[in-house]
Each structure stands twice: as C-alpha cells, then as structure tokens.
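Consider the record:
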Amino acid sequence: MKEQRRGRKIALSTEERDEFLRSQRTCRVATVSADGRPHNSALWFVWDGTALWLNTIVKSQRWADLQFEPRVAVIVDDGVEFLDLRGVELLGRVEQVGTVPRGSEPDPAVEVPERLFGEKYAGGTFVADGRHAWVRLVPDKIVSWDFTKINVG
C-alpha cells in the first residue's frame, strides 16, 4: 500500500484510523459508469483492519458501475467545524466476494464482514435479503486527516 506523502502531520495513526473506520457508520463510494460519468453514493460499510467491506444492492447504479470499472474512491469523514474535521480516503479496486445476490446459505468467505455488519448495524445478526452482494476493497492507498492536530497557536 502506498504511504501518505502529504499532510502527514495531521494524518491519523494506524490505531486512530482503525478505530475511526470501525466507529463511523456511513461512507461515500465514488464510481465511474460505462459512459464516463462519476457516481457517488452513501453506503454502510465495515472495516476488518485490512479491507473495507460494502454490502451493495445488485440492481443499482453503483453495482453496474463496479462491474464495468472496479476502481473506487471511498470517503469516510466526520466533523462540523473546520478544526473538528477528520476523515479517511481509501483508493483501490473492489472485488466481489460470495454469491450474487447473497442468499441465506452459510458462506465462510463472508463470515467476518457479515458478523461485523450485524454487530454494527443490526443488533448482532446479519440477515441476507437476496438483493445485495458483498464487495471487498483492500486499499492501494489510504489518506487520512485529523484537523484537531493543526497547531493554531
């Protein structure tokens, strides 16, 4: 994975980044359609410490875009005031994992993200609905920022 070259003074440490990605609920996934148009959509996600997992509807513009071009940029951010802003950008290619759409039969390939997703969003239990599929992003590059680290004094 490429190292962050700029803004290292305000970058999140690995531990801060992992905690941030585990605690935030919504990301924005930027894709490109077959005709070159950008598409950005909000989505729930889980972070397993190495990969970002997205459970996406297979009859969506996002899914169609990912079938055409698997490269994505994903932003997870937080904050209201300028000096409170924090965030992480993850860049790379997604890969589909498991069946499409995800059925109810057990699948060891998606056991971890489904457990994490259930714990984070669904009171402990993930239930496949037959409309979604899993994609995994193992980032080529991660950029982060924490404006609370800016020295304004």
Summary: Strands lie at 26-32, 38-47, 52-57, 71-78, 86-97, 132-137, 141-146. Residues 24 and 80 are 14 Å apart (CA to CA). The two ends are 34 Å apart (CA to CA). The mean pLDDT is 93.
